Amino acid sequence: MRENIKKYIGYMNIGKIRIRYLDTGKGEPLVFLHGLSGRIETWNRQIPFFMKRGYRVITLDIPPHGESDKPAIVYSPKYLSRIIAALLEKLNVKRAIVIGHSMGGILTLAFSMFYPQKVKVAIVLSATPGPARRPRLINVIVMGLLVLRGMFKHLYAWIEYGSQYRKIVSSPESKYLMYMAYLSHEGILSMPRIPYYGLLIGLVKENLWRDVKKISSPTAVVMGTRDEFFSFADVLKMARMNPNIYPIIIKGLGHNIFAIQDLNMKILQLIKRLEKAGFRE
């Protein structure tokens, strides 16, 4: 499957950053946003499915992932939303369906907040505007062990990269770095450490909760009751804050939304329901 989509992949300069992106198919634009440590190929099973069903599928290696550039900066949701908006503008896409998983789900929410005119409907998979505030006891224990591991990585980067690293973590948001370090694993750390930490800090830099009410497009938020990183209670809170948000809680499901059987067909059905504005019926 990976070989089949290579011919649809290209590169584009957005400001000073070179972006690797995919644009294929004809019809209504459909944008996929991958999660932390992902890339275009994360959506290998979704790209041909939706292309064959009359959608123009667009996705990208979200900086600093994949083969997109990785400058040593803080990657906030607002900044990455600007990258996505600029990409769509260069592709002459005025409005699109936007779907994101995990980190990509956070960006889907941010994009809907900052560029509501560009979003027709949105589907957020395993994400809220921020991590779970009251994780289960087992998550606290596991998180504590991984944070300890992250602290050693943090110290190593501090010594190895010196002033360049200290410049990135000097913001007030750096206090969250140790909390977010539990996300560290080999897949993520395939990217350089400096952009990686800049991304983690960026994800917690902005308080997206205060902008939930700005979402004007029909938005479904799908969350499992056993999600390791986000709380399904927060999804219900979002729905109370904004009538345009429709919660879908799946009992027993963890963070890996791709474990859902017939995921593509269920996403397609969800898009149709959101478009018809008959979701609550």
Keywords:
18% strand; 38% helix; alpha/beta; 2 domains; 281 residues; 8 strands; eight-stranded mixed beta sheet; Rossmann fold
Q: Low-confidence parts, pLDDT < 50 over ≥5 residues?
A: 171-189
Shape: globular
Helical percentage: 25-40%
| Fraction in beta strands | 15-25%
Q: How many individual β-strands?
A: 8
User: In what order do the strands lie side by side in the largest sheet?
Assistant: 1-2-4-3-5-6-7-8
Main β-sheet: number of strands, strand sense, barrel status?
A: 8 strands, mixed
SSE series: HEEEHEHEHEHHHHEHEH
What is the CATH class name of the largest domain?
Alpha Beta
Ends: how far apart?
Answer: 37 Å
Mean pLDDT: 82
Per CATH, what is the topology of the largest domain? Rossmann fold
The radius of gyration over CA amounts to 18 Å
CATH architecture assignment name of the largest domain: 3-Layer(aba) Sandwich
Number of domains: 2
Describe this structure in words.
- The protein has helices at 2-5, 47-51, 77-90, 103-114, 137-161, 163-168, 177-180, 193-205, 232-241, 263-275; strands at 9-14, 17-24, 28-33, 55-60, 96-101, 119-125, 219-224, 245-250.
- The chain has an eight-stranded mixed beta sheet, with helices on both faces.
- The chain folds into two domains: 2-132 and 207-275, Rossmann fold (3-Layer(aba) Sandwich), CATH 3.40.50.1820; 137-204, no CATH class.
- It has 281 residues and is of the alpha/beta class.
- Residues 171-189 have low confidence and may be disordered.
- It is 38% helix and 18% strand.
- Helix 3 crosses helix 4 (103-114).
- A hairpin with a 2-residue loop joins strand 1 and strand 2 (17-24).
